[in-house]
């Protein structure tokens, strides 16, 4: 569950204003997740763009782009890419890679974009972290209205049933001499991750929280948003989705 990077955080047991202003914008978030699989991410982008048969120089929005690893690679394939994320620190880092066809901006995914895109990608379980469930539907509608007439969107979400069946309740992950004590559990239809660690004599505690959305939940929301679900895949090789076996829930829609 290394990808669950959503929801309110606390520091020294004091509540922060909200998750957008805390965990994403700390250096510790990026330290903990520094070893993500870039090769796997690139393979996914190759397979996805090939499947969608995007035109040369298609305009792509990488929604919730983080530090822009997918955006940078998509741009290297020749696409005109915009990376958008709510984290100002992440966008600041990503902006170092900007060029004529690669741009980054701070953006709330619940808002309709100023531009229209040929493809919008929401990757690596960057959905389902709002306090208000209605914001999930708002986000889907915003994605729909930000697409061109013939545009496609993709949401790459965890497969909740697979994740829960394989949940590791507790572990310690040591990165850059910091011992991250991690606890995972399911509560109130959400998957939680509690992260505790100490650095320079100071103790930290953060909580990640993502809604346990299944395919049936997405289908219901998409129907309400008047979105057409085109295809469903279960991994980054775009193989079929199996409810209890697939690691991912990848949905293509327009």
TrEMBL record:
Residues 50-122 form the Tellurite resistance methyltransferase TehB-like domain. The keyword Transferase applies. GO terms for molecular function: 2-polyprenyl-6-hydroxyphenol methylase activity; 3-demethylubiquinol 3-O-methyltransferase activity. It comes from the Bacteria. One of its GO terms (biological process) is methylation. Its EC number is 2.1.1.222, 2.1.1.64. Coiled coil: none annotated. Keywords: Methyltransferase, Transferase. The keyword Cytoplasm does not apply. InterPro entries: SAM-dependent_MTases_sf (IPR029063), TehB-like_dom (IPR015985). It is an enzyme of class 2 (transferase). PANTHER family: TRANS-ACONITATE 2-METHYLTRANSFERASE (PTHR43861:SF1), TRANS-ACONITATE 2-METHYLTRANSFERASE-RELATED (PTHR43861). This is Class I SAM-dependent methyltransferase. It comes from Flavobacterium ponti. The lineage of its organism: Bacteria, Pseudomonadati, Bacteroidota, Flavobacteriia, Flavobacteriales.
């Amino acid at each position: 569950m290394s990808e669950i990077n959503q929801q309110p955080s606390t520091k020294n047991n004091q509540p922060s204003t909200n998750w957008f202003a805390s965990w994403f914008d700390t250096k510790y978030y990026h330290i903990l997740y520094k070893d993500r699989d870039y090769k796997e991410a690139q393979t996914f982008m190759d397979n996805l763009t090939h499947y969608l048969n995007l035109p040369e120089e298609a305009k792509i929005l990488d929604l919730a782009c983080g530090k822009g690893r997918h955006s940078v690679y998509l741009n290297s394939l020749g696409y005109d890419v915009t990376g958008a994320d709510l984290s100002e620190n992440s966008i600041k880092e990503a902006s170092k890679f900007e060029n004529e066809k690669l741009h980054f901006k701070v953006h709330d995914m619940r808002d309709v974009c100023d531009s229209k895109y040929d493809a919008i990608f929401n990757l690596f379980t960057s959905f389902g972290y709002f306090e208000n469930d209605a914001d999930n539907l708002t986000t889907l509608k915003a994605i729909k209205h930000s697409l061109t007439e013939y545009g496609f969107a993709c949401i790459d979400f965890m497969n909740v049933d697979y994740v829960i069946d394989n949940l590791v309740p507790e572990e310690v992950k040591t990165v850059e001499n910091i011992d991250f004590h991690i606890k995972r559990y399911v509560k109130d239809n959400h998957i939680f991750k509690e992260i505790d660690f100490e650095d320079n004599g100071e103790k930290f505690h953060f909580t990640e929280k993502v809604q346990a959305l299944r395919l049936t939940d997405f289908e219901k929301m998409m129907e309400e948003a008047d979105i057409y679900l085109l295809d469903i895949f279960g991994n980054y090789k775009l193989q079929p989705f199996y409810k209890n076996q697939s690691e991912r829930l990848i949905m293509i829609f327009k």
